[in-house]
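Standup, Tuesday
Yesterday: got the pipeline producing structure tokens again.
Today: sanity-check two examples.
Blockers: none.

Example 1:
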Amino acid sequence: MTLLAHKDADGGVQTLRDHLHNAGDLAESYESEFSQIPRMAALLHDVGKVAQQFQTYLISGKGRRGEIPHARQGAFVVNDLPISNSAAEIVKEILELVIAKHHGELPDCINEIGDEAFLTGFTEADKQNPKYAYGEIKQGLHDLDLDLQDTFQQAEKDVFDFVGRTKLLKLSKDSRYFYSGLLVKYVYSRLIDADRTDTAYFETKEQYHPIKAD
């Protein structure tokens, strides 16, 4: 069965593979610097749509929009990747944040009283919750040709580059954390822009042409 990402008002469809790769290419293309973290985010942002329950909803048109979760599963995929160094851990946390919340506001990583952290919500128990159909999604990933390992390694280089540049600025500890927060928002922005741009061009049936700044 061909997995779908979108269906327009006329009944036209966009495959999930096309949407993920298109969004990945767009997210990478906006700027050459720090391009692989947003590419990775875009490649995984909608993998929750692999689930049969989402495919049935999309094809039938029955059900409420947003009723079937499909964002958090991409963060689960990231969480399952092997981590070998501190840069990889930073990439993982950025991706978990932006993918899980690409349909809503970025969350605080910890609540006001400090007893609840967003990034602890990717446990095996979370992944086994039937509403996410994560086992089914992991099996369906092979058909999407996402090349995750190589892209993740390139994303690690983005982090090494970012950390190296901030060190040159000789920032205070608080300022380094602030810059890291800006990097998260920057990756999030590129993901949202890529996702919505590809979806919009599918719906309008127009050809995307990048705008070159002078």
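Example 2:
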Amino acid sequence: MVFDAENPQVWWKFKEGANWKHPQVWWKFKEGANWKHPQGPESNIKGKEDHPVVQVSWYDAMAYAKWAGKRLPTEAEFEYLARGGKENQIYHWGNNFEKATEFVNFHQGDFPSLNEVKDNFEKTSPVKSFPPNAFGLFEVSGNVWEWVLDTYYPNAYSKLEQRSDGYFKEYFNEEQQKVIRGGSFLCSESYCTGYRNAARMSSTPESGLEHLGFRCVKDVE
């Protein structure tokens, strides 16, 4: 799926008072969109070799990680790494949102009708466009959401503490929605503050989106 806020039908819906916060208003299916053609067959990744890969499903990410001898991080691992050892910070750079454009690629302005592009990127940005977090990791928030291993549950943390019988079998059910972390270039203060360290959302595992990618981890041997 691709972001489609420039579609005249979208603005017509806004003017008619439709619920613009519903994703169907500003997303559309694009046949032929894939990681080589993020916005559809007419697009390509020439000049974007340093950008995060997008339009990959959870299954795609899992397959690549296995091929590379790595794996997707768990949700808990992702949050630990994103925080960079700073447990009480809202964002990976601290608690001051006024500095956000110095540290993260996100949507500035009233989403989706106005993008002020104060961070200099309308969509994805090359890796290392912003300073790393305290662990030396780049783009741990903003730019693109990232798939993690876990199945999504609203009460995931309480389930983790309970460790009930059958927990792991249920928790890693491939057919259920998967957790995505980190936020993307579409997140904003007016709609989705996904760049917060604690923010978590989900998507169906077969989804391919132009603001959703992944990163791999490897166990220490």
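Quick observation on example 2: The chain has one domain: 56-221. The helical segments are 8-15, 58-67, 75-83, 156-162, 167-171.
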